[in-house]
Structure formats: structure tokens, C-alpha cells
Amino acid sequence: MKNGIKEVAKKANVSTATVSRVLNSSEVVTEETKRRVLAVIDELNYMPHAIGRALVTRQTNLIGVILPDVHSEFFSELIRGIDKAARQHNYHIIVSSTHSDKREIESMLTVMQGGRVDGLIIMSPHIDTEEVIKHLSPLSRVVFVNSYLNGASFDSVTIDNYGGAYQMVEHLIEHGHKRIAILKGEERNYDAQERFRGYLDAVKDNGLDRIKNFELLGDFTEESGYDAMIGVLRMKSKPTAIFCSNDSMALGALRAMHEKDIIVPGEIALAGFDDVPSARYVLPSLTSVHVPIFEMGKEAVEHLFVSLEGKNGGEGKKMMLPTLVIKRESCGCTPVAT
Amino acid sequence: MKNGIKEVAKKANVSTATVSRVLNSSEVVTEETKRRVLAVIDELNYMPHAIGRALVTRQTNLIGVILPDVHSEFFSELIRGIDKAARQHNYHIIVSSTHSDKREIESMLTVMQGGRVDGLIIMSPHIDTEEVIKHLSPLSRVVFVNSYLNGASFDSVTIDNYGGAYQMVEHLIEHGHKRIAILKGEERNYDAQERFRGYLDAVKDNGLDRIKNFELLGDFTEESGYDAMIGVLRMKSKPTAIFCSNDSMALGALRAMHEKDIIVPGEIALAGFDDVPSARYVLPSLTSVHVPIFEMGKEAVEHLFVSLEGKNGGEGKKMMLPTLVIKRESCGCTPVAT
DNA sequence: ATAGGTGATGTAAACGTTTACATTGCATAA
DNA sequence: TTATGCAATGTAAACGTTTACATCACCTAT
Fold first, then answer.
1. I want to staple B304 with a disulfide (CB 3.0 to 4.6 A). Which of A157, A256, B18, B119 is the partner?
2. 3-state per-residue secondary structure call for chain B
3. Which residues on chain A are in Cβ contact (under 8 Å) with B92?
């Protein structure tokens, strides 16, 4: 007992064309006919076949979302933002995580194209974004999110990594710190690069010396933050403040300091980036740079729709969302609760 | 300059059927022909049109995932597990969050069915699951995840909420506690119910009195944990231990105790549920019940594929994944680091 | 030499819609 | 009365594949 548009048409004594017109609320159908068709649709519990429809309209109402591995708050917030905005346009999203694996990215793009989605949102924080672009069919609509994209004419939405880092470091300087270390992220990570750039400029613009020893390398994980901090604590002349390129590393650093009985911020002040939920609940609470992830997802979708509706291809519109320094206990702004 | 299978066929001097056979690696094609076709495919950069294919094969290689609002670690872990398993079968996933809104669920189901996906994974922790089931087309393949599902003949994968709570409470009892409070989740939440049931049975089986005053109501948010704890601290005769139905509430409770200078676990011991990442980093670190979220997603997909491959409809196979008590500082197992 | 078999390829229908165009019936104007 | 126009509906092609079936060439056994 299959029931397609044909069955509905027959039962309602009209042609499939008319049923289709009712379905797409075309104006030209008589009230009477419309009522009859609707009744039959209801009776047969008819559901339009999305694939059949997509084949002819060349529209799937689907957006593909390609992400690298990403920590959980970021991931869920981004998806939430994207989904929310997509739903408002009556779209759904196909999500896939690439683990930043080249072969995986490639296969993903192949699958996603070929009519399966109307547009693509890609996050590619590593420098291999050029690889990605190479596999992009020229007619596909794409918006990049928080990606390394030098000059390529694609739409993109990013957060102000540079500015956030700059302001945070400047804030530490306002506290009187002159020896500020940075815990960097992976070299090839775009966010990490930008945040480092912000640190460097803030240090320079405020007349402090750049101390190469204080530029530590991490990889955005809690462990790497812990390890790096242990290293710092072995230094003869220690920094008085540490700016971590993300909160996970800051939490790791904090753990190391707890273990070694270092008082934060008394002996060493600490600041992170991302403002993850835990930042509020650790002791001392973690000063961090808030990042509008949800909004970024939302904006990405809006950009995509502009591109989808306009005839002309994406004109490479870039958008940068502001970040915000959240002052808590670990930088010394608020007395530490005990 | 469109290029479909026809263009490939023409250029390679074969019929579309042969191209299709090459594409689907059918055995019967000559080596020579295959090579020629493959060459043309490469030259034209031909990509099979997924929709055209789906229309005739009646297969989209897509799994729909419908989730309520869910906290971020849970969300991302679950998606990760589902995506990983799906990719192994060459499937992609369509994700949508319903915010537990009835109308939204309904429209979601309608959209998702009608040939758009091959199967559905649904998480519906609230009691209104029956509403969901009502809108399920009988031929759609579905696996429920962590859902309230009394007896309905659907496949489902859940975690052992009851057992985890039971063991955790029993563990607190082993520490010598006799006055153990519980911070419950919303009444209509399935997880919350089960965890409460575990608490109740553990208390009873160990010969302790049920103290109604100690059964506090929360809603799984950090704030509700904080508020409830403030209430507890005003009680004349306080509990000596508190079991929170999830970690967010436990973190809230912890914050309240910090503010009021209550020593944990010295004065009041604390335990949570979910084992979120922050549990490791708060002070004191939080004893909690670990939940295999990733695995749950993976298992859900595997169940779905069994159902997809088998001719017969889902036989209502249920699977329950074990939970694990993780002992840290907040229950008194480990000395608290300072 | 011929029938029958086999292996490779081609032909065309089918999947479930939408939509350009054709048709119909009817009202209105000349 | 007949042309004209218009509103409502129908007809059938199209979207891009897959696949059952037909065809064809060639080989083998009789």
C-alpha cells in the first residue's frame, strides 16, 4: 500500500499537477478543489517524497556542516547556532566531523556535493584550508567559519581572536604585570596564530620586552597546559602572569599550580581564552575571553542564505565577531572566594 | 556546462548503463571499458548526483538524529559517537534539536520521513515520547536513545541510570553516611526518574530511613543546584552527604558550599552524575558516575543498521550500557589537594 | 553449419515530484 | 452568434540515476 501523489490525485479526482499545486499553495486552485485534495491528503496520511521533489526543484533544503575535531562546548554551541538559524529558513543540517584528516575531508566534500546539499559551512582551522578549497566545486555555495583563509574569495565568519588576546594581555599589563608569558596553541592552528599575534602586539605596544623564553608551546589540551606549567615553575626567573591561548590549557596550568601550592593570582596571575562553562566554577574562577560561538554559527547561515538567494556567487564577504574580556578572580580583579 | 552521467557516457562511447555499472563496480564490465570510462569521469570531474541516485535506489545514506536540548558534553559526545559509526557505514547524519517542543518534534518527523533519511535516532527523555511515536510512520526504522519507552516495540539504547545511582548511593553509605539527601531532576525526565529510583532502592536495601525532606527538586541546571543547596544549608538537621542527579547541579551545590564556607567532604560529602570534564578540575574534584555517551551513540547506529539490513521490522531490542562510579575527592575517598 | 550458451553492452522504464504548455469551459463583448 | 479572454485544470516532459530485459557478437559443442 504505497501512497504517492498519484494515489492522492486519483482519490481526489484531480491530476497530480493539481495536487502539487495545492501542496505548494499555488494561488490558482479553487477553494473547493483545495479542500477536497487536502482532505484526501489527510486521509491517506500522505507525505511528499522529499527526494522526488528535490530532483526536479534542484533544492534539498539541506546545509552541510564540516568540522574538525573541536572541544565540546565549541562544537555544541556552533551546531546549535547553525541549526537554529537553518530551521528558521526551513533547512536541516548534515553534520560531519573530519578529524582534520585530509582524506576524510576530501571524501566528505565529494559526498556533500553532487546535489546533496544546497550549501556548505566549513570550519578548517588548520593551514591546509587550501587543500579543501581545491576540492570545492566552483558552483557550490560555501561559508567558512573561523578558518585560515588568506585572500581567497569565499565568504567567511570569524571571531576576533587577535583583538581578544590583545585586550586580555593589555588587561594583565594594567594589573601591573611586566613579565607575561603566553601558552600558545599549535603552530598551524589559525586561532592560535591570531591569539599569539595579539599577545605580541599588546606586549610591544605597551613598551614591554619580548621574552622568547616566555613563549610556550601547547596544543590546546588540558594536559599540554599542565605540562607547560610544570616547565614554567622550574624556571629561575618566572613570569608573574600567564596568558593561555585557550581555557583547557589554562585549567591544566591551574591544576599544576594547585599541586605545587602556587597561589593564583597572588604569585602568578592567569587568564584564558574561550570562556568555557567551567571557567566560572574553578577556584579561583578563571578570567577569560568570551567568544560568541552561537552567533558565529548563526551568522554563517545568514551569509549562506544571502549567497543562496542572490544570483551571483559569493563575493567573499568577511565578517568578524567581537570578543569580550571577562574579568574574574584569576587575574586579580576580584578577591578570591574561599 | 553541466556534466551528468550522459555526458560521460557519450564521451566514453558507451551507454549510461555501462557508466553506472562502472560507478557501482559491477563485475561484468571489461577492464578496457572500465579504464576508458574512469578516465572520462576523471577528465570531466564527474560526481554522481546523489538525489538522482537516491530516487531509484530508495536509499539516501542519511540517518536523522533528533535530540532535545541537552548539555554540551552530552550533545557533542553523542553526535561524535553517532557520526563515527555512521561514517563507517558510509552514512551521514542530519542533526536537529527539538528543544522538546511538541510542534517542533512533529514537523521534524514529517520532514525527516518521506524518503529523506533511511533511519532515525531519537532521544526523547521526556514522558511525551508517546506523542513522538504517534507521528512515526510505521515503515520507518527507528532507534531510541536514553528515552522513556515503556514496552513499545522499538529498538532502544540506554545507560544504566538506575544502577549508577544505586551504586553511588551505596558508596556514600560505605563511607558511613546515614543521612543522604538527593537532588532530583525534573519529574518528567526519564534519566531523573531512574536515578531517583536507584537512590530510593539503595537507601531502602541498606536499611536506612527514607527522609522526605532530603528529596530536593532541581532541573539539571547549575543554578537549581545552587539554590537547592542554599536551602539545605538552612535546614536545622542537615544531611551529611548529597547525591546530585547530575554534575551541573553538583557544581552549583559546590559553589553554594564554597560561599558558605562548608568543607567538602568534611562537613558534607558530595557526589554527582555524568562525569563531565569539569568534574576532574573543580576543588575538591567531584566524585561522579561515568556515562558512556560516545558508546551509546555508536550502539544506536549499529542497532539501526541491523534493523536496516534485516528484512523484518525492529523487534524492539533493548540495550543497556553500564555506568561506572568514579571516586574522587568530594566523597571522601581521596585526600583533598590544597 | 547450426543451435545454444555466454559475456558484454545497450535500451528504456521506473523512481516521485514540478511545471511549461495545452486544453477546457465559461463569461463577456462585439 | 461568434470571437476573445481568462480561470481552472490536465498532460506530459523533465530532473539523473539504476536495472530488468533485450540485443549482439562470438565461442563451443554437436
1. B119
2. CCCCHHHHHHHHCCCHHHHHHHHCCCCCCCHHHHHHHHHHHHHHCCCCCHHHHHHHHCCCCEEEEEECCCCHHHHHHHHHHHHHHHHHCCCEEEEEECCCCHHHHHHHHHHHCCCCCCEEEEECCECCHHHHHHCCCCCCCEEEECCCCCCCCCEEEEECHHHHHHHHHHHHHHCCCCCEEEEECCCCEHHHHHHHHHHHHHHHHCCCCCCHHHEEECCCCHHHHHHHHHHHHCCCCCCCEEEECCHHHHHHHHHHHHHCCCCCCCCCEEECCECCCHHHHCCCCCEEEECCHHHHHHHHHHHHHHHHHCCCCCCCCEEEECCEEECCCCCCCCCCCC
3. 94, 96, 111-112
